[in-house]
Write a structure and sequence with these properties.
The structure is a single chain. By secondary structure, the protein is mainly β. The protein has one domain: TonB-dependent receptor, beta-barrel domain (Maltoporin, Chain A, Beta Barrel), CATH 2.40.170.20. 6% of the residues lie in helices and 57% in strands. The protein contains 4 helices and 36 strands. The strands form 6 sheets. It has a 22-stranded antiparallel β-barrel. It has a 5-stranded mixed β-sheet with strand order 1-6-7-4-5. A two-stranded antiparallel ribbon has the order 2-3. Strand 8 and strand 9 form a beta hairpin.
């Protein structure tokens, strides 16, 4: 074991030196507000711990405030290394992490899985960033820490109270190009023992932007997007009661969306509509007893989705009703001096009624996760996690992950990290029961992944701080589910375990911060390379080709400057070639989108006024992230934040 560790350290240092020239990604988008608020006290430490050896990114509340009128998809697209596929403003948006598909990314809300069990994924455009206080992204095997598991990543959306006696009121309206009106209202009040938080939001837009149509005619022509209207609205109510170190919390989140879905070019006038409605309720109790922490959570969620495709030749509609009941509990306790043990049990029962299943279908999944974490001094840490899953009456092969972390220089924040994992994914309910094509005999997908990383934070001078991060990963996915034609001449597709994928690459990031009196300068950069290829069994012509809709190269950067109450930021996102054919014979061109933000804050005695102006797609670039679904050109967004603290 010692020889293996030494080899890993030597290889890691060599790779760090070799790749040190690559740029990086940042996590905090724009300047945080200058009005100081008491810190958020995270009470659920036993749910959301930092696993040594694994990559975990955190988008904190300061960064989220700058995207409060955007979706979680917009936020993650500009601040993380994931690739987002957009069907246009207000349309469906889905992610890809490290060469995986949208179904390999799990969304949780305060530790509870909120992925739609029918497709097995989430639409990120239906998740407003203004409803969330923190976002935590656990890559690969680190996802097991939440008692769940995802081959790509888990994105945990967190809500937390402010334990103080202040009353806070925020009103945040916005006005944007293409007929968009949006607004967010937050009211927080309470004492050191009781907190109530109310949030409400609305987003309405016509999305009638002009785009360059290169498909419908021989010559490119500017055309207005049609049938793209959207209305979203909802609210969240949070209640927290604290006695000593024990916290009882209740949360309710209601969301509705009604949107017209424009078709792909050139058939832009197709009458396609979708209505989404959901209600999520969560009751949680946290208990702290000396060295031990306990929690129990129960949640009920209801999702309604109505879809209509009005065509004279092929009319279609679906009516979907989903109920999910979750019971989850666990404990964390200290063992001797350096070790912490953790156990999480979860039972998730889902029932689906849809006109595309033969009858109502129920699924019950039970998981048990055990982990042990050991920290020796301040230089060495290790963790091992084991998860067992029962799907109905089937006991699955256990999943496993392990991580190591070593502080290279004593007293300095220079760390080497390494992890391995075996992770699996149960087929979605559509994969099993959709008619026609569902296959109840599907096997689970599974993957073997490994990662080695190095990160540092260095104070160069009292005013200047720099940070660097590099992660190199591999991911081997087997028995991947794919929908294929029943025969060469058939238009009927069936789900089957016919694919295997190898994915590997690197992610690097660089951050510098300068602070001097009333001046602040932040420079952040990011680069990621992902090589994701299909391997046998499969067509020889597609073996070794880059998977569709997974760009090999991505980069983003942020330069922000602040002087007293004035601030400005330049945000750049680069996406390389996106292949749209399994043979790599067709592709979407790479594109670079630039955005600028400038604003001014007025600090009064008990209030703050923040005026902000954003120009999106500054150079009016014509681009697509999904073939035949154009993205808007230059846009203008004006927002006003008015905050009162008493």
């Amino acid at each position: 074991m010692t020889g293996l560790t030494n080899n890993i350290l030597r290889i890691s240092l060599s790779l760090v030196v070799w790749f040190i020239v690559f740029p990086s990604t940042g996590q905090d988008p724009l300047l945080s507000d200058t009005v100081q608020i008491q810190e958020v006290i995270i009470t659920r430490r036993q749910i959301s711990s930092i696993q040594p050896g694994f990559r975990i990114d955190i988008v904190d509340s300061a960064a989220l405030r700058n995207y409060s009128l955007y979706s979680i998809g917009d936020l993650l697209n500009e601040t993380t290394p994931l690739f987002m596929k957009f069907y246009g403003p207000g349309g469906t948006s889905t992610p890809s992490f490290r060469g995986t598909s949208a179904g390999h990314t799990l969304i949780t809300w305060n530790g509870i899985n909120i992925n739609n069990p029918m497709p097995g994924q989430s639409d990120f455009s239906l998740l407003p960033a203004g409803m969330i206080d923190n976002v935590k992204i656990s890559f690969g095997g680190a996802s097991m820490d939440l008692g769940e598991g995802a081959i790509g990543a888990i994105i945990n959306l967190e809500n937390e109270p402010l334990w103080n006696s202040n009353t806070l009121i925020e009103l945040n309206p916005g006005l944007e190009s293409f007929g968009r009106y949006s607004g967010l209202l937050k009211v927080k009040t309470g004492t050191d023992h009781f907190q109530t938080i109310t949030k409400a939001y609305m987003n309405s837009t016509r999305n009638d932007f002009l785009f360059l149509d290169t498909v419908s005619d021989n010559l490119p022509v500017l055309v207005k997007r049609e049938n793209s209207e959207m209305l979203q609205k909802g609210f969240m109510q949070e209640l927290y009661l604290r006695k000593s170190n024990n916290v009882l919390s209740a949360r309710v989140w209601y969301h509705s969306a009604s949107r017209n879905l424009p078709g792909p070019l050139p058939s832009d006038s197709i009458d396609e509509k979708q209505k989404d409605e959901s209600i999520r309720t969560l009751l949680n109790y946290d208990i702290v007893r000396k060295k031990s922490e306990f929690f129990i959570t129960t949640a009920w969620m209801f999702t309604k989705l109505d879809y209509d495709y009005r065509s004279k030749l092929y009319p279609d509609s679906s009516r979907n009703r989903i109920n999910t009941l979750v019971l989850k509990g666990g404990m964390t306790t200290g063992f001797r001096e350096y070790t912490r043990l953790k156990m999480v049990l979860c039972n998730e029962l889902s029932s689906v009624k849809t006109n595309y299943y033969e009858s109502m279908v129920k699924r019950n999944i039970i998981t048990m996760t055990l982990s042990a974490e050991r920290r020796k001094g301040d230089r060495f840490a290790a963790v091992i996690l084991l998860r067992e899953t029962i799907d109905g009456t089937n006991l699955l092969l256990p999943d496993l992950s392990a991580g190591l972390e070593f502080r290279v220089i004593k007293g300095e924040d220079h760390y080497l990290k390494w992890n391995i994992s075996r992770n699996s994914k149960i087929p979605s309910m559509n994969d099993c029961y959709w008619k026609p094509g569902g296959n109840p005999d599907l096997r689970n997908e599974y993957s073997y992944s490994s990662e080695i990383g190095y990160n540092l934070t260095q104070k160069i001078t009292p005013k200047l701080t720099a940070g660097f991060d590099l992660n190199i990963f591999t991911n081997y996915i087997r028995d991947m589910i794919q929908w294929r034609p029943i025969s060469e001449t058939s238009y009927v597709y069936i789900a089957d375990n016919i694919r295997s994928v190898n994915s590997s690459g690197l992610e690097s990031s660089l951050l510098t911060k300068y602070r001097s009196n009333n001046i602040m300068i932040d420079l952040k950069a990011a680069y990621s390379y992902t090589k994701a290829t299909a391997i046998k069994p499969g067509s020889p012509e597609t073996t070794g080709k880059q998977l569709i809709y997974i760009p090999e190269n991505q980069a983003n950067g942020l330069l922000q400057i602040g002087y007293k109450n004035l601030y400005s930021a330049w945000i750049t996102d680069f996406t390389g070639i996106i292949y749209t054919s399994a043979y790599n014979s067709e592709h979407l061109s790479g594109h670079t989108v630039n955005n600028i933000v400038t604003g001014f804050r007025i600090n009064l005695k008990e209030s703050l006024i923040d005026l902000r102006f954003r120009v999106g797609n500054l150079f009016n670039v014509s681009y697509q992230t999904i073939a035949y679904y154009p993205q808007p050109g230059r846009s203008y967004f004006f927002t006003l934040l008015f905050r009162i603290i008493k």
